[in-house]
TrEMBL record:
Pfam families: NDH2_C, Pyr_redox_2
Protein name listed in UniProt: NADH:ubiquinone reductase (non-electrogenic)
Natural source organism: Polyangium mundeleinium
Keyword Transmembrane among UniProt keywords: yes
Swiss-Prot/TrEMBL keywords: FAD, Flavoprotein, Membrane, NAD, Oxidoreductase, Transit peptide, Transmembrane, Transmembrane helix
FAD/NAD(P)-binding domain: residues covered: 9-326
The family this protein is said to belong to: Belongs to the NADH dehydrogenase family.
Reactions that this protein is recorded to catalyse: a quinone + NADH + H(+) = a quinol + NAD(+)
EC id: 1.6.5.9
Domain External alternative NADH-ubiquinone oxidoreductase-like C-terminal: 350-405
Domain of life: Bacteria
Transmembrane segments: 7-27, 368-390
Length: 450
């Protein structure tokens, strides 16, 4: 690339939706592009919960970043972590070394927000990376294995209780997937326990779930969750999370071996290291052209940015918004290289969707509101469309069709026990034959609500 050394250098940090689309949209532009990411893959985060609940394998929703740009000659990919930015010196500081830039595009996403209780992160499992998804999958599957092994009713009850904290789209999707897994997928796989008796609880601190949707759609989603047997606790902020479960402010406890945190996000440490103004969620406040005030050559996009567009619309932290911002920044850089002025960013709201489970979803597209089967079909079509690569689209669609007709999930693999409580498998290990819950406890067991 010696012939490109005199071209403007565009450094992009983050291979998510925003960063990836910014780099792809600079194909053929008279610039050098360096894409920096601490992982080697682009992750389709909207389907990460399906990896966590054994519906999809990691490779179904991830693609190597280098393969995406193998034919785009003006892009170089670096596996590295960005630790800071020297804004006056126009230098990106890496874990080893640095990069000088003419334009910098920051698209590093967000991290978990425990609202001042960071210690909860040692007990509640977050869902932002493949590692975290696999850890949830492992914890969930080991909980069923531990319940099959124990003869202690209280231990079994705790192992078969799953708590999801946060009533946004991720929390709703996780709760629905947990319930379907227990009720249908695992229902015939065990002998001492009845997986369909697992308890799934969705906890929301606010007065209703899916607050970003119209109230009537939120109520329909709640009804869909109820039809799956999910218990929804609204208006009940969590006061404590420990190894044994959660506690509410009134002292009531829910003992659970698996607690998933989906209650909020905040800016990453890189956002804080910039030394610029942040909003209450730790996101970088940017101008209407997605640039940092006083540093027009530095852009922040996606979940890490608090952006208000040309028409005063607050840009949401959604996949379509990050894609639009990535493409917009690329157009802006192209225009400036040609000596043309900038135009402010305009966000096009293409709608919002959330799936609850099989044939259950809600969707809001402009004035059109959908719920149920049609919303579920629309949700599937949109998510397959946004996946990167034909292979991933084919694999995901094939898996969904297979699961629809068979109720089978082939990604139910326990590969390691790293980070998982030993008692999940070792609690009250029986000395003799395990009594069958289906036979021995049928009389005392409450009827299934599913």
């Amino acid at each position: 690339m010696a012939d490109r050394k005199d071209m403007p250098h565009v450094v992009i940090v983050g291979g998510g939706f925003g960063g990836l689309n910014a780099a792809m949209s600079l194909a053929g532009a008279p610039v050098r592009v360096t894409l920096v990411d601490r992982t080697n893959h682009h992750l389709f985060q909207p389907l990460l919960y399906q990896v966590a609940t054994a519906g999809l394998s990691p490779a179904d929703i991830a693609v190597p970043i280098r393969s995406v740009f193998s034919r785009q000659r003006n892009v170089r990919v670096l596996l590295a972590e960005a630790n800071g930015v020297d804004l006056p010196g126009k230098r990106l500081l890496l874990d080893k070394g640095e990069l000088r830039y003419d334009y910098l595009v920051l698209a590093v996403g967000a991290t978990h927000n425990f609202f001042g209780h960071d210690e909860w992160g040692t007990h509640a499992l977050g869902l932002k990376t493949l590692d975290e998804a696999l850890r949830i999958r492992e914890r969930m599957l080991l909980a069923f294995e531990g319940a099959e092994r124990t003869t202690d009713p209280e231990a079994r009850k705790r192992l078969l209780t799953f708590v999801v904290i946060g009533g946004g789209p991720t929390g709703v999707e996780m709760a629905g997937a947990f319930s379907e897994l227990a009720t249908h997928v695992l229902s015939k796989d065990f002998r001492a326990i009845d997986p369909s008796q697992a308890r799934v609880v969705l906890v929301e601190a606010g007065p209703r779930i899916l607050a970003a949707f119209p109230e009537d759609l939120g109520k329909r989603a709640e009804a869909q969750l109820a039809s799956l047997g999910v218990t929804v606790e609204k208006g009940r902020p969590v006061a404590r999370i420990d190894d044994d479960g959660i506690a509410f402010g009134d002292g009531e406890r829910i003992d659970a071996a698996t607690v998933v945190w989906a209650a909020g996000v905040r800016g990453t440490k890189l956002s804080r290291a910039l030394g610029v103004e942040l909003d209450r969620g730790g996101r970088v406040k940017v101008s209407s052209d997605c640039s940092l005030p006083d540093h027009p050559e530095v852009f922040a996009i996606g979940d890490m940015a608090a952006c208000r567009d040309k028409h005063g619309v607050d840009v949401p932290g959604l996949c379509p918004a990050a894609i639009q911002q990535g493409k917009y920044v690329a157009r802006t850089i192209r225009a400036e290289v040609r000596g043309k002025p900038r135009e402010p960013f305009v966000y096009l709201d293409k709608g919002t969707m959330a799936t609850v489970g099989r044939k259950r979803a809600i969707a809001m597209m402009g004035k059109l509101e959908l719920a149920g089967f049609l919303a579920w079909l629309a949700w599937m079509a949109v998510h397959v469309f946004f996946l990167i690569g034909f292979k991933n689209r084919f694999l995901v669609m094939f898996n969904w069709i297979w699961q629809y007709f068979t109720w089978k999930r082939g990604a139910r693999l326990i590969t390691t026990h790293t980070g998982v409580e030993p008692q999940l498998l070792l609690a009250a290990a029986p000395d003799g034959p395990v009594p069958s819950l289906r036979a021995a406890d049928a009389a005392s067991k409450p009827a299934s609500t599913r």
